[in-house]
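in:
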């Protein structure tokens, strides 16, 4: 009888483990679906902008789903209760999305485009571009909430979006490699070099931004000149801008 009782208890424990695994799988799948949803939205914005504006503010997008092991380690470090509701409430970067742009102005343009999406809720914004970290790190961090519609319910999923330029991304990647190479204790000389490199990268970003603005001014001037030329029967006629704008006013 004792042997049979132990078997029944073992079966019960096994079933409990199966249930926990199924709950964890469903939990992680929900975040995976949220990541897919955000990826789809970003790709739509990317293609639409490219089609209508002949310019793409997004260089590339990288997504990642934090592993269960990383989630549990973070919960332990924070000394938090290890339950799914507690994880959902306290860990807001299970879904990570990095958007890399060409120019600083693109970062804020993409942020505004995301804000206009009615089913994306902005929870928190940390602007490390206007206020860089002491290490020199720059990026725009946004925590958003996304609805995920499951078969039997709707779940709100948190995601962390990092938007940065190519120069910022290159610097952050280098800093990350050095940080872990020296087991999180970077020599003072290298720390100073990294801060200086961040300054150089920031200067490059601002110079490229200025060039971008100048190119746009030239393009706008060319478009204005083209608007003022009417071609009929291989002959060009000058159209005063005042005449064109007067037609717009009449239509209004």
């Amino acid at each position: 009888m004792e042997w049979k009782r132990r078997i029944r208890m073992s079966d019960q424990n096994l079933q409990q483990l199966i249930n926990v695994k199924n709950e964890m799988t469903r939990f992680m799948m929900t975040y995976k679906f949220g990541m897919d949803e955000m990826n789809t939205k970003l790709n739509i914005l990317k293609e639409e902008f490219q089609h209508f504006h002949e310019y793409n503010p997004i260089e590339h997008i990288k997504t990642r789903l934090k592993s269960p092991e990383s989630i549990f380690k973070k919960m332990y470090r924070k000394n938090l209760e290890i339950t799914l509701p507690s994880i959902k409430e306290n860990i807001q970067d299970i879904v990570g999305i990095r958007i890399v742009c060409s120019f600083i102005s693109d970062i804020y343009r993409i942020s505004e485009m995301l804000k206009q999406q009615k089913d994306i809720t902005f929870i928190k914004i940390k602007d490390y571009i206007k206020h860089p970290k002491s290490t020199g790190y720059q990026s725009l961090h946004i925590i958003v909430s996304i609805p995920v519609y499951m078969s039997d319910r709707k779940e709100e999923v948190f995601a962390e979006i990092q938007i940065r330029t190519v120069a910022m991304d290159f610097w952050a990647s280098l800093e990350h490699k050095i940080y872990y190479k020296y087991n999180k204790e970077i020599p003072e000389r290298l720390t100073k070099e990294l801060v200086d490199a961040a300054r150089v990268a920031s200067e490059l970003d601002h110079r490229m931004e200025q060039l971008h603005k100048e190119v746009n001014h030239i393009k706008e001037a060319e478009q204005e000149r083209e608007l003022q030329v009417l071609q009929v029967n291989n002959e060009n006629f000058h159209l005063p801008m005042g005449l064109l704008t007067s037609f717009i006013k009449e239509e209004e």
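note: The first helix runs from residue 2 to 53.
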